[in-house]
Structures are given as structure tokens and as C-alpha cells.
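Regression test attached.
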Amino acid sequence: MNRLLRRYLAPALVFVAVLAVWEFFVRAFGIQGFLLPPPSEVVRTVSAEWPVVWPAGLFTLREALGGLFGGSIAAIAVAFAVSRWSTIRVGVQPLAVAAGSAPIIALAPITNQWFGITNPVSKMAVVAVMVFFPVMINMVRGLTDVGGAKVELMNSLAAPDFATLWKVRLPNSLPYLLSALRVAVALSLIGAVVTEYFGGSRAALGVYISQQAGLTRMAEAWAGIVVATLLGAGLQLLVMGAERVLIPWHPSRRLTPA
Amino acid sequence: MTSVMVSLRGVDKVFPRRKGASTVALEGIDLEIRAGDFVSLLGPSGCGKSTLLRIVGDLLEPTAGTVTVNGKSPSRARHDRDYGMVFQQATLLEWRRVLGNVALPLEVTGMAEPQRSERAREMLKLVELVEFADHYPWQLSGGMQQRVAIARALTLEPSLLLMDEPFGALDEMTRERMQMELMRIWQETQTTVLFVTHSIPEAVFLSTQVVVMTPRPGRVAGIVDIDLPQPRVFETREETKYFDKLVEVREVLRAEEE
Ligand SMILES: Nc1ncnc2c1ncn2[C@@H]1O[C@H](COP(=O)(O)OP(=O)(O)OP(=O)(O)O)[C@@H](O)[C@H]1O
Ligand SMILES: [Mg+2]
């Protein structure tokens, strides 16, 4: 009971407190609505604009998920090759680290040109490139940081390479993959929304936010951001659910210390 | 006539080091292990015990000399799954439950369900851990984990059991219990055991033969036959003959130091 309280009640209280402070400051200092609307107004606007912002959010979510899947699957495939052949690893790894620290979002105007500004693929492409590097780097680590003892065990059983891959390397990589996906999920929404700031379909959330902000309709812009946040939180929950199913054995999931 | 399980003739092992220097881990090892015997390799740290065990287990190639296991090359014997290995650390796969860990060798050799689980369960009975079949390794104590590792090593009914300081990480009391357990298993399975240890009392209590080794370079200093009555029981440690054997082994070790 105490644990549940701490786990859910404490964050909820902090959240409410932040909103209260925000509301208080906006009112106490008479901050004008076009600079920063009070949360109460944002909430009102979210419900008023819901028929517009929610479908816009889903449109953008599709782009984010498309890029997330494409980028992750490519990253996992490359990770298998890279972990299998160490010569490729030596060639690829430093490049991946360098490319991973580049501001990939800067590609947005270019992919908009390549694929067409209203084509969701222009957003998916940016997202795919953004998630590719963290997923690939972590997956390689997960497939290779196995520990000599387990590899020796499989050798002592004269296990073929694919058995070692399937029974040892792959399960070993799952926690690495899932922690990369937590990052990738957040990146995917950032990639999709920000690329839409550079132009996109009228049905997209990023376009909605940038248009409303351009018209200084701040409450509406914030409502769009609230939807983006809800989607991000939903995706995080999905990854956490996947962790529960895929790695129930992982130390992070243990209820009592080992 | 007793048959020979392991035979080493003039085995050397040299590890290359940087700048052309090298470590002579083993030099001129001649050793014969009879089927059904329990043979301990005893000696100070760095004298090449693990190296010797790994050569017999085909996890390392000797630099010179010939090795046969069951009348075959170590590689042939490994691919025929003639031996099971137990390492100093239990080396369990943390994503598998206890039963799944014990079943691992059976999966690798392609045994189908339900025979596989049945067989794994039998092995768990042998180490008295059936009730823990559905536990994860981290829910077990160090001694229990090591028993799981022993069960796993025995699932394929190996004619040779290779053990590298399997009780090294355990406390004295658990260690003595594990020794009794191992004696019982050895009696029941009639397998040949090659056992690495630092501990003189452990070597004398368990073995039919103690191979005393000395370091730099690793050589066999002497072989002491331990003709204490079988089965070894708790009272064995209180017999005068047991103390005589401790002294005898200790003297072989000391003679080498001078
Ligand atoms: N893979 C390796 N590469 C280089 N040198 C090695 C390697 N393995 C062992 N050695 C060297 O060979 C010697 C014998 O090592 P080994 O591990 O067989 O000793 P040991 O008797 O098992 O010692 P311990 O009781 O501490 O486990 C040591 O000097 C060690 O440094
Ligand atoms: Mg050793």
C-alpha cells in the first residue's frame, strides 16, 4: 500500500502542484494570455478543440510510428550484421556514434523536398534516421556484451552459432533494446512534430501547433502540445508494458533485491 | 581392467604476450585419468589448473602434446557431448527459470518436449531442487545456483564431468554440504570427475586421486592416491587416514616450493 502510494500519489501531487504554481503566477502577475495562458484555459481549450487536435495527433502519431518501426527494424537488422562480423563493427561503430550525435532534425527541410511536404513519408524519414542510431548502438551492445562465461558454456555444449544467438545473445539484448526504445519513442514524436513545423499536411499536429502559435492563439497551441504529450506518455506506457512481458526476469523488475 | 578416460602426453601451453614475451602456463604434462575416478587438480593460483581443464574440455588448444578423451580428440568428444562443465560461477541464464536452465543442453541437442522437461526435472531431483523449478536464478542462493549448474552439466549423462572450482564462491558450511551432495551424485551417476580446487581438505575428501601442480611453469609435482573407503561420509573427515593424506599432499606441495 505504502509503495503504491509513493509510486502514483507522489508524482500526481507534484504534477498538480506545478499546475497550481503556473496558474498562480499567470494570475498574480497578470501575464497576458498570448505569452503564457493559465492551465485552466489550456484545459478548456483542449476540450473545445478536441475534435480537431485529437485527429491531428493521431495523424502525427502514424508518422511517428511509421518512422519508429522503419528505423528500429533497420537498426536491429544492421545490429545483427555488425555484431556478427567484427570487421563491420570496427568500420561502422565510430561512424554511428558520430552520426548519432548529429542534429538529425536538421534534415527536415530536405526530406520535405524529397518526399513532398504533405507526404507522411517525409516525416517518417526524419524519425527513422533519428531512432536508427540509438537503437542500433544499444542493440549491438546487447548482442555482444554477453560475458565470456556464457559463450564458453555454449561452446562447451558444442552449440551451433545460431543457438548461441537465439538462446543467449538475443535474450541478453532485450533490456538494451527496450531502453533504446524508450528513448526512440520520445525521439519519434519530436521528429514528427518538429518536421511538421517546416510544413506538412493540414491534418498534422505540428502544422496545427505552428499555425496557432503564428496567430498568437496560444491556448490552442498549448492544447496541441498537451495532445503531443499525451501521445508521448501513451507510447512510454506501451514500452513499459513490453518490458513487463519481455523481460520479467530483469533486475529492474525484481520486487526484492537479489 | 579399467579403461582410460583422459590421457595427456607431453602437453604444453604457452600464452603469447605483448612484445614477444610469453607465459608458459603448462609444461610437459603427462596424466592419465581412469574411467570412474574422481581426480582433483590442486595447486596455488596461476599454476595452470583452469588451463589444463579447458584443454581437456576443448575450450583451449594445447601448444604441444596430445590429448585424448574417451579415446577421441577433445574436439570430437566435445561435439559428441561426452562431458559436462561446471564453472566457478554458476553461469545460469538469468532470463530462464531453473527448469529452463537445466534443459538448455537438451534443447541444444534437440530433445523434444515433454521428454526434455521430464529429464530436466529428474536432474533437479538429483540435486534436490525440484520445488524451485519455476524460480528465476536470482531467487536462489549461491549454493543452490551452483547445484542448478551441476544438474545442467549432468543432463546429457556425460561420461566426464569437468569442474573448475565449483564451490570456490561458497561459504565453508555450504561447501561441505555441496561436497557431500557431489559425492552422492558421483556414486549415483558413476561418471568420471576432473575437479579443480585450491583447497587441500576438499581435494582429499572428494578424490580418488589428487594431482598436485606447481606454478611457473605449471607442472605436475606429484600424484597422491587417496584410498580412503567409499562412500565418503561425514565421519571420513575424522579418520586418521584422512589426516595422513592431508599431510602427504601438503608435503608434495612443500617439497616443490623448496
Ligand atoms: N587466456 C589467457 N591468456 C594469457 N594468459 C593466460 C590465459 N589464461 C591463463 N593465462 C595464464 O596462464 C597461467 C595459468 O592460468 P590458470 O588460469 O590456468 O591458473 P589457475 O591454476 O587456474 O589459477 P587460479 O587458481 O587462480 O584459477 C597464469 O599465469 C595466467 O596468467
Ligand atoms: Mg582457475
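Expected vs. actual: identical. The pocket of magnesium ion (ligand 2) is lined by residues B 49-50, 164 (CB under 6 Å).
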